Amino acid sequence: DSCIQFTRHASDVLLNLNRLRSRDILTDVTILVNRQQFRAHKTVLMACSGLFYTIFTDSHKCNLNAISLDPKVDPEGFAILLEFMYTSRLTLKESLIMAIMNTAIYLQMDHVVDTCHRFIKSSDP
Amino acid sequence: YEGVNTIKEMGRSIHEIPRQD
Predict the structure, then answer these.
(1) Chain A: nearest CA to B18, how far in angstroms?
(2) From CA A98, how far away is CA A84, in angstroms rounded?
(3) Which of A24, A74, A75, B7 is within CB 3.0–4.6 Å of A33 for a Cys-Cys bond?
(4) What ipTM did this prediction achieve?
């Protein structure tokens, strides 16, 4: 008996999910951050964020097709974290690192928060 | 992403969804 593991399968699946997002195929929720709107797949949001996991496993909220985030959330920070969810790449612009980290705290993405902390500490002169 | 200094993070990236709640 043998087993063939396609080592790049996970990243290929994620790339296709991102293609579906950019073509708005089977996206099932709009995330409202201040005046900006982001279409996404609930399953991807839940897989990556503790906050969205809690929201979409709540029987009263799982059928919502629009979610407004707290107005303190920075849309640019959210956009970068949404991109991370669909690409595994976190773009850290110096001017946005705090907004990204605060948004990751809000979205309950603890591993990203820890990584941002370490990045800030390592880049402190 | 050419030209950007890329740091490889080998640790866990996201939470783990429990087998059941």
Answers:
(1) 11
(2) 16
(3) A75
(4) 0.88
